[in-house]
Amino acid sequence: MEQRWVSLVSAILIVSVIACFGVATDVGAASWNGIEPFKTSRAGVLKIMGPPVSEGADGVLRFNVSGGSVQISFVNEKFVANKKLRPELAGVVLEIVLQHEHSSDTAESMKLLKNRDFIRDDVRNISVFRNIKDGVVYTFIEGRLKTTRYTFADSQLSRARR
Questions:
Q1: Are 129 and 112 in contact (CB under 8 A)?
Q2: Which 8-state DSSP code applies to residue 161?
């Protein structure tokens, strides 16, 4: 009986480890408000956000949100062709751009200065922090957060290819 118990516990541990590795390798892009690049469809965005304030000629949807606005763009046929992606990705979210109008967040308050996941670029009064692995980019102007971009993660792009 004890041998069967040990075998059962061993099997559970092995399955747990395999499941953890499976989850760890299936990392997606950072999401915002339940919307994720390369996954959420246009219909999904409209279900979450409701009707947009405006829509650009290129299909970019604009919404007013607390603290600013958000623009959501979608993968189009040209992007699919240029990046050699699977055709079914046309129409899913490509990028989410939050415009922060009155943010008091700084790189310091967001603990980005010592975060090794981010690459920092500075030009005059603009600082950009990029996390390419997760697809997140923060732009600070005169030290204050102005935009947050959520886009596809590097790993997603390679998996999305044909």
A1: yes
A2: B
| Integer Cα distance of 18 and 150 in angstroms | 29
Which segment of 1-10, 17-26, 32-41 scores lowest on mean pLDDT? 17-26
Residues forming a β-bridge with 32: 35
Torsion (CA) 101, 105, 107, 111 in degrees, nearest 10 = -150
Total-model pTM: 0.79
Beta strands per DSSP E along 92-143: 93-100, 119-123, 126-131, 136-141
**94 Cα distance to chain centroid:** 9
Q: Count Cα atoms within 13 angstroms, Cβ side, for 150.
A: 21
Structure tokens at 144: 């204050």
pLDDT value for 160: 82
Helix intervals (H) in the chain: 2-25, 42-49, 77-83, 154-160
Of the candidates 2, 66, 35, the residue with the CA atom closest to the CA atom of residue 152: 35
Location of structure tokens 């500075």: 122
pLDDT in tens, 68-88: 999 999 999 999 999 999 999
* CB-count burial class (<10 Å; 0-12, 13-18, 19+) for 137: buried
3-class secondary-structure state, position 133: coil
Beta bridge partners of 85: 161
